[in-house]
């Protein structure tokens, strides 16, 4: 803990943590050290973990990087955090992110941007930017992030680490501040597959506080390094590799990887995926709709920031609080979501998007009848300069094209560092598997790294 606290202090400019639980972490470490030698130790005994500022930890602040939740204190711990603690982990602090998880660069944060440790003038990715930066810079061993549309995988990709998003319904969302409830999942950022797999094994599984969590047994995730000569059936989408937005270097490295997997005896085949152009619009219609409804609870009465001004009507009071409390991107999404749900447009946008989501899910199921893994880029580009896309939300949304697919389909996905040389920006490869087949996904990932 001392080592990580020192690193955090030295790397303060990264703005990866918005609050450090220093004293408390030291105390907990001392308590864990004081356990008798023969005491039973948890699977994560002494493991130092940071949590994204959307995950509740009892008696600690949680704000979703938003002014609307300034100084708010959690009344209970999320299931994920409680399970980490039960296995002996030490929570070292809460980490910077985009407000309510809305963004791809960590620039939409009430605490200011987090920086990419690889190169400080490029973005760390988002929305779990602080969580990825912290792992990359050695400020903690691993982080819990959340992935509604790539927010674990994209920052992992931009920072050159491992990011795992489990199947929708694999990890409890109890105590996670909602963005889009039918998409949100807690995931893990770590420097290698073994660490991510072990932490996922601890936090996954049924929970009476979240009815969308599956009761399916959690598999032996942490056994990833078991030797096996399993040959995988791997699909890739040529439309994605040839997509005009993809950096040629990324697609050629991915081609090389596919060739080398084939040479090693895996079955590697192209699959034509015809719905590519619908992915981003469908995602942004459905998630903004869900967000506009989820965020209606923040009105300054039940939660959060209250403008201390006089007001007439109650609606004026709500308006004042929400106008002052939410940032620009969050407001944009609430307005968009309210629009697509409004009486005159509901069928044209929301219903249509739900139908497209169903089609995407059906096509995905068909693919996994014949394949174990889909391989793809995580992002079309490497990390770009801070400030470059923040003024052009559509360009930023388009960068989510390859990640939001897994959230729409509900399947598990990882980003693994594919290209990680010290003098250039890193980038990753994305692997996806069938729903609840985390075991294959993690074992395959281990094979790749
Ligand atoms: N870029 C995505 C968005 O802004 C990230 C969402 C997420 O996974 N939290 O919606």
UniProtKB/TrEMBL annotation:
Catalytic residues identified in the record: 52, 127, 151
Annotated ranges, domain Amidase: 1-442
Domain of life: Bacteria
Gene Ontology MF annotations: ATP binding; glutaminyl-tRNA synthase (glutamine-hydrolyzing) activity
Reactions this protein catalyses: L-glutamyl-tRNA(Gln) + L-glutamine + ATP + H2O = L-glutaminyl-tRNA(Gln) + L-glutamate + ADP + phosphate + H(+)
Assembly notes: Heterotrimer of A, B and C subunits.
Protein name: Glutamyl-tRNA(Gln) amidotransferase subunit A
Source species: Paraflavisolibacter caeni
């Amino acid at each position: 803990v001392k080592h990580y606290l020192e690193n955090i202090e030295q790397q303060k400019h990264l703005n990866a943590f918005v609050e450090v639980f220093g004293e408390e972490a030291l105390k907990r470490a001392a308590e864990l050290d004081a356990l008798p030698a023969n005491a039973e130790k948890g699977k994560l005994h002494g493991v130092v973990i940071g949590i994204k500022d959307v995950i509740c930890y009892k008696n600690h602040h949680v704000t979703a990087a938003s002014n609307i939740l300034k100084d708010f204190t959690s009344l209970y711990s999320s299931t994920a955090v409680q399970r980490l603690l039960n296995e002996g982990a030490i929570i070292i602090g809460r980490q910077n992110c985009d407000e309510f998880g809305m963004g791809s660069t960590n620039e939409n944060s009430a605490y200011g941007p987090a920086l990419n440790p690889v190169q400080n003038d490029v973005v760390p990715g988002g929305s779990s930017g602080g969580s990825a930066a912290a792992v990359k810079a050695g400020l903690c061993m691993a982080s819990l992030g959340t992935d509604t549309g790539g927010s674990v995988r994209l920052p992992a990709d931009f920072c050159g680490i491992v990011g795992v998003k489990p199947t929708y319904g694999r990890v409890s969302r109890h105590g996670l501040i909602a963005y889009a409830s039918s998409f949100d999942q807690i995931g893990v950022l770590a420097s290698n597959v073994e660490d991510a797999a072990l932490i996922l094994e601890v936090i996954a599984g049924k929970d009476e506080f979240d009815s969308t969590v599956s009761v399916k047994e959690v598999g032996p995730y942490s056994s990833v390094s078991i030797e096996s000569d399993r040959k995988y059936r791997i699909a890739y989408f040529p439309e994605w590799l040839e997509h005009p937005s993809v950096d040629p270097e990324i697609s050629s490295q991915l081609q090389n990887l596919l060739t080398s997997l084939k040479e090693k005896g895996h079955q590697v085949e192209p699959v034509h995926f015809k719905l590519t152009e619908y992915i981003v619009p469908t995602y942004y219609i459905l998630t903004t709709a869900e967000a506009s409804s989820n965020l209606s609870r923040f009105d300054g009465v039940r939660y959060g920031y209250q403008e201390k001004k006089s007001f007439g009507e109650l609606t004026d009071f709500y308006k004042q609080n929400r106008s002052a409390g939410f940032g620009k991107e969050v407001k944009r999404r609430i307005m968009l979501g309210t629009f697509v749900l409004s009486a005159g447009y509901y069928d044209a946008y929301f219903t249509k998007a739900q139908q497209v989501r169903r089609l995407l899910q059906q096509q995905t199921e068909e693919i996994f009848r014949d394949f174990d893994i889909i391989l793809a880029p995580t992002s079309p580009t490497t990390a770009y300069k801070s400030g470059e896309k923040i003024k052009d939300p559509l360009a930023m949304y388009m960068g989510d094209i390859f990640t939001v697919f897994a959230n729409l389909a509900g399947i598990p996905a990882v980003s693994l560092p594919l290209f990680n040389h010290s003098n250039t920006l890193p980038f990753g490869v994305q692997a996806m598997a069938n729903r609840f087949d985390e075991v294959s996904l993690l074992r395959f990932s281990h094979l790749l790294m």
